[in-house]
Structures are given as C-alpha cells and as structure tokens.
Task: inverse folding
C-alpha cells in the first residue's frame, strides 16, 4: 500500500524545529510583555499561555489603566514602563516581548539587553533602518538572543510551502504575486493602533505595517533576499495625511524572479501569496492574517490539491519556537540580522516611491 | 418576493449589445479567414459557424496544404495568398479575419481595405506601434470598419465584471493583479506558432502574445488607459533567445490605480485577474484562455459569491458581435484606435525593460 500521502498528511503540521518534549518542560521561559495593544492582549498573551515553553509573568504599557486591567484579570505583575526599564521586577522574567509602536522598540530592547534578557521584538523591528541596526547591535553587544516576530515563519502551512519550493516541486520560481489589505480605520476604530497614522511613531503605514508580510514571507519561502526594488505609495483619504495609505512594490530576487506586491490600509480585505514556477504553482489564500484559516493550493502537471488544515494558533507557534530555542540554547532563525534586511528593503521602497527609480540593493 | 437575484442570474449571459434577432438573419456576414494556425482552425472557424451573424466562405494561408485540407473538409473556397490579395474571389466575402503572424497583418489588411472589406484583425494589431498605426490609417482611409480580436471583451462574464466595477460595487478600484502563463514549447510543440519565437514576425513573445490579455482586459474593465508603465523582461531558456520568455509589468491608471502583471511563455499554467477596491473585490480565475471555464468571485462586506457560468464559445461571441455590428451598421468598440493604445503601451513596456525607467504615456 502506498502510504506516501498518508505520511505527508500526518506530518503536515509537525514542528520540524522541535527537539524538546513539551511535557518535559518544568520551567518555561518567563515572558514580560511590553505594550498592551489589541494584538498583545488578543493574540500574544493567549499564545504565550498556550505554549508549553513559555509563560507570561509581567506586563507593562504607557497606559496604566490597561496594565491594571490585565494585571487584575490575571496573576501577572503589572508595572510602569519606568519601573520596567529600571529592572525593578527583572527577577520575574527571562525574556521580553516588545509590542509597542515601532519607534519605541529600541528603548525597551535597550532596557531588556541591559538586564541580560532575551528579546522577542515585533516587526518591523524599528521605525527606520538605522534604529533597527542599533537595536541589533544592542542585543549583540549584550550577548542576548534576539528574535523578530515573524509569525508566518513558524506557521506549519508556510513551512510546508517553503519545503515544497525547496524540493523543487514547482521547478524554478518565475513570478510571485502577493496582496494584503484591510480597512484599518473601519476595522480598528478607536484602537490605540492609530499610532500607525503618526509617521514619527510608525515610520510609515501601509508599507511598514502590512508590506512587511508579503516582503518577509516571500523572502522566507524563496530563501532569498531582494537585489533590487521599486515601489509607489499613495494617499487619498485625509486620515492618512503624512503616511502611505496604499502601496505597491516589485521585489527582484536573484535570477530575476519578480514578486509583485500590493498592500493597503484602506481597501477591502485581501490576503494572498501566489508563486508560479516553471512546473507548478503554490497558492496560499488566505495567507497573512493571524485570524485566518490559511489554505494552500498545490498545482503541478494538471493536478491541483487544496490543503485545508485545522489552524494552529499562530502566535502560540511563534512563542513556542522562541521559548523552545531559548531552553535548548539553539540559534533563532528570524533574528535581527534577518529582520534588518526587511528594514533596509522597506526604506529602499520608500526611496523608490520618492524618486521613481529602481533601487539596487546589491553592493 | 425578492426577484433581484433571480433577474440578475437570468440576465447574466445576455448579449447586452444585441439588437438584431439572430433568427431573423437571412444573409450573415461572409468571412474570409486569412491564416490557418491552430487558433483559426480550432476556434475561429467553429466560432464563425456557430454565430448566426457570420459564415465562413474563403480561406487562405501561405501553407497550401493547410488550405487544401480545410477546403476539402468544408465547402469553403481555398485560395493562395496572392490570389486573395489580388481580390480574385472578393465577391465571395464581406469581411476578412486576419490571424497571421503579427508582422504580416498589415499586408492582408491593406488588401482587404483596398477591396472595401470590413476587417477583424487579431491582436496585437501588428508587430510595432508604427505598423499598427498604419493599419488603422489604411482602414480609416478606405472607410472600412476595423475590429480587433479582443475575445475577452465580448465574454459575458467579463462584461458583468465590468458592469459591477462601473456600478461602484467594489468602491474605488485600488489595486489589480493579473497573471497569465503557459508552457508554450510544451503545449504547442511542432505548431506553426513557433513564429512567436521570431522577433521580426512577432515583435516580441511573452509580453506581445500574452501580456496583451492582462493589459487590454484591465483597460476594458476599468474603462481607463494607463498613464505610466514600467516593466522587466527576462529570457533563460535558449529556445527563447532573441525574445522575451518572461515579463512583468506595472500599469498605472488615472488616480494612481496600479495593475501588477506577470506573464510567461515558459511557466506553469496561470490565468487570473483580481481587482481590489475600497469596498470589495472581483476575481476572475481562470480568466484569460479561450478554453477555460471562467469563474467570477464577487466579494463585499463579508459576503462572497462564486459565479460559475456555462461557458459561452468565446470566439462565437466575438464573431457574433462583429457580424451583428456590421449588419446593423453600429460602431465597433474594440476598434483600431482602442487597439493602438495597447501597441503603444507594449512598446513602452519594452522600452522600460531596456532602460529601467518608468515611461510616462500622458502627453
């Protein structure tokens, strides 16, 4: 009997990176959460709790009410940002998750590094490539591990897509299309995420906040980095004055593979990654949002398979990976050096949008 | 009872352009076919015969065997290209369908115009914008109607998609993605279509032959023309030496609407058009090939409808439109002036691929 498909299906959601038995973990990595926006509360906190390798112990935010609320609902220690940075409860955590507005990541990472704590920093790593580079250096100098929160990279569906590409399932990749959009004002009205409209805090809007998904996920699955980029940004709605409401960009990877990407903070919901190769296609749709049940379509030689998977909790997987790798002292893949390339590419796309020119990234 | 959906469904495939009762047509437009490649034989001939407004009467090709074969299988008059151009059987047809290699369209259209015959010319209209312009002028000077063979424009699914956009169903269009690819060498081995590999005959390969579908269909459904374009072409396989095997391009429409397009003559089959607006999305997948059963997905406000339609014979619809409009003396929409814009845009994309610069099309 041919068991190949059976084995493939059974192993589809395996954690290919896991060497430590979750049941054998007595002392999970204790995490301090910095920043209590909706993603932290709705996704990161539950993700940390679900993961066998992590537990949340401390929370902080500039919004004292939010800290009180979370602390009173849980057994977490709530502190002010000042107390956190001063290390007043540093004995209560081993690692720090930073999910504040982009331009404030550095200050919290500096504090964590000074305290000798490992860091999981949200993406984009900072509001500019220069600040992102400082952030990487701070962690390197302090000798603390730094992971960047690319939750797509630890999603098993995305990892299987990458495996297929790596195994040559579609031949040589030729073209990539990626689109991701949402109605930020409509979906998130009244939410503290409105800091994304402040260029000083965010460093940009559609491209910084959303563009990083098509960019990083394409890099991850192709296992390659762009060599040239071009792009355009556009703002029509007055709420987006000073930042980019819509953006499109083209990433050129080695061998001329082109990724055509569009993102928007003010368009109907879209979420799709599509790779066409010389011999087949791989389509992830929906692709990028944490709340979506990702579906993978696999096409080759007239055969199409649609793979629907019981969704993992994407942020649990991310924190499990982080905790697991700290406990096993294993190098982390989406690290600062990896994330720094995104910061530079995003900056190059903004530059291209200003000048109308292609920006070469090879030196 | 709410009959809105019922009426919509019932009228979905209606010919919104048809004013003449097909059953009332005694004398359909008699068509001479020039060029007997696989598309002419497999699609155009049956399309002409199926349409109540047209009938095929004459065939010609530089391949005398092909002419003999078709003439012996049917009751059509087969003639040599020389005899055709000399008008030897001009009394047997009212209109001429030109489906020869791109760079030879002009000579046959000149003959047809001289004979006072209406013309349906395959797309791209010619191998260069200059020759395309001459072709348009030849017809204008002779006062003969000229239609260009954009079979997507008379497909009811495409027309309904256009209606929805026009009615504001998705709000303002924001981004378009289009992809179309095939393995030309594999799918068409031994076929006379290999003239597409000869730049003198074709004027280009992936972009000219395939790129025109995303380009023209996007123009048609948005009812707008690009104001700026950029693009890249690439050739890896030796069989494509001298022409473009792969291409990607960005079309910028008025108001900054961006269409991101990829095409290939040597990649896995893909065929998709996707429009994201401020309030919804319209997705045609498969979209572009004559043999596909087009499916339209309509998304707005959390509702998604998938529309599958009994496929029309796309080339029947095209010839029915052509014949109908000649019989009723009605202006033809995809005319030479319309097609000339595609020729200029394609040339601008090739220029951009050479220079790496964006080419502005507004003057």
Result:
């Amino acid at each position: 009997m041919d068991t190949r498909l059976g084995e493939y299906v059974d192993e589809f959601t395996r954690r290919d990176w896991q060497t430590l038995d979750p049941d054998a973990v007595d002392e999970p990595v204790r995490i301090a959460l910095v920043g209590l926006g909706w993603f932290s509360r709705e996704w990161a906190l539950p993700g940390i709790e679900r993961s066998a390798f992590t537990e949340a112990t401390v929370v902080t935010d500039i919004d004292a009410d939010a800290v009180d609320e979370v602390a009173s609902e849980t057994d977490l220690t709530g502190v002010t940002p000042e107390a956190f940075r001063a290390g007043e409860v540093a004995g209560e955590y081993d690692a720090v998750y930073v999910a504040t507005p982009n331009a404030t990541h550095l200050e919290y990472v500096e504090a964590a590094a000074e305290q000798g704590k490992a860091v999981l920093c949200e993406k984009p790593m900072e509001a500019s490539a220069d600040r992102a580079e400082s952030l990487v250096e701070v962690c390197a100098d302090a000798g603390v591990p730094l992971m960047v929160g690319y939750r797509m990279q630890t999603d098993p569906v995305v990892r299987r897509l990458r495996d297929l590409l790596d195994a040559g399932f579609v031949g040589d990749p030729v073209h990539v299309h990626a689109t991701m959009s949402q109605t930020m004002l409509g979906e998130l009205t009244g939410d503290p995420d409105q800091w994304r409209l402040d260029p000083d805090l965010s460093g940009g809007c559609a491209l910084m906040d959303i563009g990083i998904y098509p960019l990083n996920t394409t890099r991850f699955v192709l296992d390659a980095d762009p060599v040239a980029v071009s792009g355009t940004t556009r703002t029509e709605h007055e709420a987006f004055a000073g930042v980019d409401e819509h953006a499109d960009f083209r990433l050129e990877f080695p061998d001329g593979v082109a990724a055509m990407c569009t993102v928007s903070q003010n368009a109907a919901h879209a979420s799709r990654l599509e790779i066409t190769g010389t011999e087949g296609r791989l389509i992830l749709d929906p692709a990028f949002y944490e709340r979506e049940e990702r579906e993978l379509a696999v096409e080759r030689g007239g055969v199409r398979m649609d793979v629907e998977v019981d969704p993992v909790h994407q942020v649990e997987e991310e924190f499990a990976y982080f905790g697991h790798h700290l406990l096993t002292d294993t190098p982390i893949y989406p690290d600062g050096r990896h994330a720094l390339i995104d910061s530079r590419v995003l900056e190059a796309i903004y530059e291209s949008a200003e000048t109308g020119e292609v920006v070469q990234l090879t030196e």
In short: The first strand of chain A starts at residue 29 and ends at 34. The CA atoms of residues 17 and 321 of chain A lie 8 Å apart. The mean pLDDT of chain A is 95.
